[in-house]
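Researcher: Re-running this chain for the archive, since the previous output was lost when a drive failed. Same request as before.
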Amino acid sequence: MDIDPSTTKYVIKTKLVANGIVEKPDVVGAIFGQTEGLLGDELDLRDLQKSGRMGRIEVEVSSSRGKSTGTIILPSSLDLVETSILGAALETIDRVGPCKAQITVDEIRDVRESKRRKIVERAKELLTDVMEEGEVPLGNISEMVRSEVQMEEITEFGKDKLPAGPNVKESDAIILVEGRSDVLNLLKYGIKNSIAVEGTNVPESIKNLTTERVTTAFVDGDRGGLLILKELLETAEIDYVAQSPDNTEVEELTQKQIMKALRSKIPIDQYVEMYDLDTGKKSNHKKKSWKARKREQAEEEKEKKPKSRSDIFKSMLSDIKGDKKAILLDPDGNKKDELPTRELADKLKSNQYDGSTVVFDGIITQRLVDVASSAGITTLVARRIGNIPKLPTSMDLISLDQLN
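Model: Regenerated structure tokens:
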């Protein structure tokens, strides 16, 4: 049904049931005829319609098996009290044409509320798509839009359920901020790819995420911001740094301040060279790049870690590759002797070797396994393992493929 929206405030929607076959003119005639004089001159339906305070009555009716059912819609520009009186008056109609009938009001709907809803929804779309410089005008509707955009779009990321914008999962670039309030402030101005670290203890989900995305750390311009930045530099892969003005926090910034800070972001290598991370002030001396220091730190950590047995075997095989040589290890796993592979069997048969591990450039055969087992060898390491139908339970055979 078409309703004239120009003056309508409310819509009365009713249900019609008639014991007989009736048509639209019968329904309209019954409404005007049976309510005439019922509500006084001020609420006479004909006068209300002539003055435009009541719209055209819309009727849909259908008949089946000797009965008629339908819907009546009555648009009103009166206030809610007067509109409710009209609705009650419609329910007094007991005949339509020659048939007994009953009219029941289903609802009185405020048309303006649906218009307000449409305004809010459309404004949310416009606010998200088109952000202009400066403040968004204040007012009841604008505040409603801001609030709904923020609350509907903030999400949770990862097992830590970190506050995040809705685009974090798909975006190629992310912005790390300190807390939920920072994420909300960025959302207010249409920035949907921020995620909060929630303190100096950086979660694993943040560490993993920064290895896959171009990452900007957007920190507060105070001591707390520096502490979080230092922790991020130690535990995550940061590409750029953006900072709030001195003694301000990201959650307090205006749109203009946010955009300026993000446009002025500094590559991490350059930031570390320029600034002292303890004070946040510019440094006068040249430093190694952050990435270079991270590489050196990783190498140092690698050197500190004891090499595994697999690493030792792999390194030895690499050293004797193509030389057809064998290395005998002492009980502590250190190199004791080196000899040509062709002499290995004789060496083991002579019982002159008191170790238990042999690494050699060749193929482990059943014959060598038998000789080594008799000599008390428990581990044979070689490039390949041949067909070994009889392997002692006390012996390990290791190939280069197993070490990779």
